């Protein structure tokens, strides 16, 4: 019994020692686990850090800027419609005239004589016709004679009308409100039919003519707003009123025209100008021009983060740009734009995102 008692006592001590050891080891393991960094933090520490900023699309009015030339909206070369000598010039170069104002006086003597002759011929033929109509009933004339004389009366009326028209053409008037831009005759000069003697232009409204590349013409529509900037920096406003249906055979570009108002009657016809055409509204992002980059195919774009914090190149269309800012389309409504560290990450690589407000330490990646 004593031997058994000793053995039992030893076993009891051994069990107590094992239990105590297990108890101590359990707390040491728990403490070690508590001191170890989380797995997510370990993985994040091994990822490249990139800085990003949130960007939201905004309404943007697209524009097309091209070079054009300012021309009068209406311009006409004044040509003689009758042959006659110049008597006087009621207007001078540079004068503003209204529609119907007298521009030139030509000698009327020959035209007045022709008119008098035409009136006399018509009167004679009408008398002859009336007499023959009375003789028909008495048998002294035939119906064929009456028809022939009636035809002669009609011809005489046409001659008289032409004589009156010829006389009126010795007093040419302004076909529209405008400015006498050129006068090439003096009193005493003789004008033949078709000779140019002056030019009248309307500058109250101006026409701006330009050529558009074939890749841009699809964005244009009649009535679009146009701003015209002159060489002195001043602006005129109007709208697009003509787009050619076919391209020029040599340049493959399309001619367009815009009408702009010129309320101050400025002398700018013939001058060069830049046209800015509003071509529609789109959703676009405004971002720093420094974020624009090129991919392996020389496409312009930016680098963004997806929902899994992976880096992607997004091609964009540059709508407008300055030294520091740019407007681009082609992105989602909301994007996380990489602003720093994109050059350290490959396409599709997962990174550690840091908002713009926090500093990115690339040395700690």
UniProtKB/TrEMBL annotation:
GO cellular component annotations, sorted alphabetically?
A: efflux pump complex
SUPFAM superfamilies according to UniProt: HlyD-like secretion proteins
Keyword annotations for this protein? Answer: Membrane, Transmembrane, Transmembrane helix
> Ranges for the Multidrug resistance protein MdtA-like barrel-sandwich hybrid domain?
76-198
Task: State the source organism's domain of life.
Answer: Bacteria
Please tell me whether the keyword Transmembrane helix is annotated for this protein: yes
Show the Pfam families listed in the entry: Beta-barrel_RND_2 (PF25954), BSH_RND (PF25917)
Q: What InterPro entries does the database record attribute to this sequence?
A: Beta-barrel_RND_2, MdtA-like_BSH, RND_pump_MFP
Q: Which residues cross the membrane?
A: 7-25
Outline the extent of the CusB-like beta-barrel domain: 209-279
In alphabetical order, the GO MF annotations are:
efflux transmembrane transporter activity
NCBIfam families reported in the protein's UniProt record: RND_mfp (TIGR01730)
The family assignment reads: Belongs to the membrane fusion protein (MFP) (TC 8.A.1) family.
Q: By what name is this protein known?
A: Multidrug efflux system membrane fusion protein
Q: Which organism is it from?
A: Marinobacterium mangrovicola
Q: What is the lineage of its organism?
A: Bacteria, Pseudomonadati, Pseudomonadota, Gammaproteobacteria, Oceanospirillales
